[in-house]
Amino acid sequence: MKNKFGVICFFIIVGIIISFIINLNIGYAKLSFSDFFNESSEQFEIAGFRINRALAMVLAGIAIPTSGFLLQEHFKNPLAGPDVLGITSVSSLFVAFYIFFSQNVLIPDFLQNSFISLSSILGSVFLMVVLILFSNRFRDKSFIIIFGFLISALAGAVVSFLQFYVESQSLKNYILWTFGANNQADFSQISILTILIIIGLFFTFKSIKPLIGNSLGSAYAQSFGVSQSKLKISIIVASSILSASVTAFLGPILFIGVVVPHFCRMLWNPAQLWHQLILNVVLGVLMMQVFSIISELSQFPINIITTFFGIPVILLMLVKKK
Fold first, then answer.
1. pLDDT tens column, 136-168
2. How far apart, in whole angstroms, are the C-alpha atoms of residue 86 and residue 80?
């Protein structure tokens, strides 16, 4: 069994390496191998943009599926995810508040990204706390999905209201951000995003063992010292940081947090959570690299590509589950 899991991961990792190399070579300008290392080359700056683009997709592929995996395991619902539950929408709403209301405030450029990231994380944490509180009131946890859709609709309505009154430049900045412009992330943004994802993964690793115990039943988990309240807080922090940090720097990337965990459960035993976590990371990175390549070739924003892919898959999931 372990050998079979290793074979699956091996082929996915090979796919990641191939797609990463292809991603580095997609664009208007043709680059040589030396352009990526020779600072005196005229194409060195373009090569840097492509490296940042590919690295951003690696980080997004790690963070978003992991966030969706945690939420699905906690809510015991395969449709739970940072976008379906409204986390991405509320993160976008808080970013919109910051962009629109800071338009007349002089803020240094090096602080802009930090404030956007902080706004996104605060929005994500706020909604996750609300979701956890309401999940205790609903006997059927599927109701939390409906609640998330309502929150998403409300957040979208508020953003539309703000767009109606703000200045054109702020509106343009927000629209460009929502496109998920992965090729706009610079090295400093990639560095901050990496740190945030490492923090999110730290809380993720702390959550897996309690989730394994919890999957055997709450009474069984408590007999082994699993604290439900601490588990909820750990999941709130992990999934919020992972989804909100990517949303902050790369814009809202939709449906990947639902689709990738679904595919991973098809590939491997859903009860083996450590294996599922590894699969979500490697398969998420592969899919985001492929979507980035499609985005560059088609010139469509990456969040449109992921939406066109994610919606049919979720519809098939609903039909399959009846």
1. 776 666 677 788 888 888 998 988 888 777 776
2. 10
pLDDT at 219: 64
b/e map 199-232, b = 16+ CB within 10 Å: ebbebbeebbebbbbbeeeeeebeeeebeeeebb
Burial bucket for residue 304 (CB in 10 Å: 0-12, 13-18, 19+): middle
Q: How far apart are CA 268 and CA 120, in angstroms?
A: 33
> Nearest Cα to 292, choosing from 8, 64, 61, 36?
61
Q: Map residue 43 onto helix, strand or coil.
A: coil
Distance from C-alpha of 280 to C-alpha of 278, rounded to nearest angstrom: 5
- pTM for this entry: 0.88
Which residues make Cβ contacts (< 8 Å) with residue 172, sequence separation at least 6? none
240: helix, coil or strand?
Answer: helix
**pLDDT tens-digit map of 213-240:** 877 666 666 666 677 778 888 888 898 8
Q: Six-digit token pair at 189?
A: 């943004």
Closest residue by Cα to residue 68 from 221, 295, 296, 253: 253
- CA–CA gap between residue 321 and residue 299 (Å, rounded): 35
Give the chain's domains with CATH numbers.
2-321 (1.10.3470.10)
Phi first, then psi, for residue 55 (nearest 5°) are: -65, -35
Q: Please answer whether residues 54 and 24 qualify as being in contact, where contact means their C-beta atoms are separated by less than 8 angstroms.
A: yes
pLDDT at position 223 is 65
Strand blocks (E) in 42-159: none
